[in-house]
Specification:
Layout (H helix, E strand, L loop, with lengths): L19 H12 L8 E5 L6 H13 L3 E7 L4 H21 L5 H7 L14 H14 L3 E7 L6 H15 L4 E7 L1 H9 L10 E4 L5 H14 L3 E2 L1 H11 L3 H14 L5 E2 L1 H25 L3 H10 L6 E2 H8 L3 H13 L3 E5 L2 E4 L4 H12 L1
Parallel strand pairs: 1-4, 1-5, 2-3, 3-4, 6-7
Antiparallel strand pairs: 8-10, 9-10
The protein binds adenosine-5'-diphosphate and magnesium ion (MG).
Length: 366
């Protein structure tokens, strides 16, 4: 028996709850001819909504469908890293497929990584990538580039996006899947040099339905060799509240609290959910609130006066501020993924447990 829940950032879960539409659309785009609009997709979501897990899942899907994938974080060295990973993964793919073994020296030449530099002129990144893509296309392989935590302040990110646009425009088999926090994505899209990205497909990673959470939770428990009482399962689903990271935390902690027993009972989920809430507070909620300004926090504090969703006029009144102030801060908080619109001009907290945690955070902060 092994605990199969994965309560760590960036881990592909044993069972991916929900997200079928997104996985389906991107998979379809990979199977389609170059130019399918979903071949350029941006995943947007708050911490813990499953961006990295989805990037990694799609990379695995791509590799089963005649693509190689390279996965980078938005850090200096990004462009060189993409070239090197492409060569390495391309060679590994062919070795598996054809049973050919490349000597490590050959890997570079097969994928055009080594060039004769005429008179000291180094080819630029675009022409090196063109050579690599030519080598891949000889083997009918496409290239999926995944970029996590997009950061428009990194020059190489902008360069990557521009060169990608040219390569994709040439009809090459190349796809770009990016992920970021809402404010990272909105500032990337605001950058004029990559305005074509505004036409990329955007997927907002919203809460997962209770039915999908329940199915994934149960499947993970069963695969780990245990079972769960029906009432305990309902309690777990309620504590998870549609949030992917909580699914893993509640699952992991409840499983551990069950010890050697074969069935996860109510008391184990109670204990598990309470430990999970502590993890959630420190690893998601505090980290998110730490990035906000004082005025953002005052806005959120004013929202506590309503039991449910708030309206702009209520916040304006509570803060004694203009409606322009309120709409500025509402937009900022929407972009951060901290609040979400609930219809009819109303908005509410978007992260689970943020409402009960907020007073505690503000008290410790003042
Ligand atoms: N659809 C999902 N179903 C179940 N668990 C998920 C799902 N998406 C992510 N997770 C889990 O949630 C946690 C956070 O996911 P991660 O991809 O790191 O989030 P993000 O990159 O958005 O911060 C990880 O433990 C991951 O295994
Ligand atoms: Mg991540």
């Amino acid at each position: 028996m092994k605990n199969l829940f994965t309560p760590n950032f960036g881990q592909i879960p044993y069972c991916l709850a929900g997200r079928e539409d997104i996985v389906g659309d991107i998979t379809h785009a990979l199977d389609n001819t170059p130019g399918d609009p979903n071949q350029t997709t941006i995943l947007v979501g708050a911490r813990g909504t499953g961006k990295t897990a989805l990037l990694r899942t799609m990379a695995a899907v791509a590799e089963q469908r005649g693509w190689i994938s390279v996965n980078v974080a938005c850090l200096p060295g990004l462009l060189e890293d993409i070239l090197q990973q492409t060569a390495r993964n391309g060679a590994a793919f062919l070795e598996k497929k054809d049973g050919v073994r490349f000597k490590s020296i050959n890997i570079a030449s097969v994928f055009g990584i080594e060039w004769e530099y005429a008179r000291g002129i180094e080819p630029n990144w675009r022409s090196r990538m063109t050579d690599v893509l030519d080598a891949l296309s000889e083997h009918d392989l496409g290239l999926l580039i995944t970029v996590d935590e997009v950061d428009p302040s990194l020059d190489e990110m902008i360069q990557l996006a521009s060169v990608y646009q040219l390569l994709a425009g040439d009809g090459r088999k190349i796809a770009l899947l990016m992920a970021g926090l809402p404010h990272q994505v909105s500032s990337l899209l605001a950058n004029k040099s990559v305005s074509f990205l505004r036409r990329a497909a955007q997927c907002h990673l919203e809460r997962i339905s209770d039915a999908d959470v329940e199915a994934a939770f149960l499947a993970t428990v069963k695969a780990s060799g245990k079972d769960i009482d029906a009432s305990a399962l309902q309690e777990a689903v309620a504590a998870i509240d549609g949030f992917p990271y909580m699914l893993q935390l509640v699952g992991y902690r409840s499983w551990q609290a069950t010890g050697e027993a074969l069935k996860i009972a109510d008391h184990a989920v109670e204990e598990g959910a309470s430990l999970a809430e502590t993890d959630m507070r420190t690893r998601v909620l505090k980290a998110t609130l730490d990035e906000l300004s004082d005025a953002d926090l005052l806005f959120l504090q004013a929202m506590l006066q309503q039991e449910g969703a708030s309206e702009a006029s209520q916040i304006a009144q509570a803060l004694g501020k203009s409606s322009a102030h309120v709409s500025t801060y509402r937009r900022r908080l929407l972009e951060q993924g901290v609040i979400a619109e609930t219809g009819r001009g109303r908005f509410d907290f978007a992260l689970p447990m943020l409402r009960p945690y907020l007073p505690e955070y503000i008290a410790s902060y003042l």
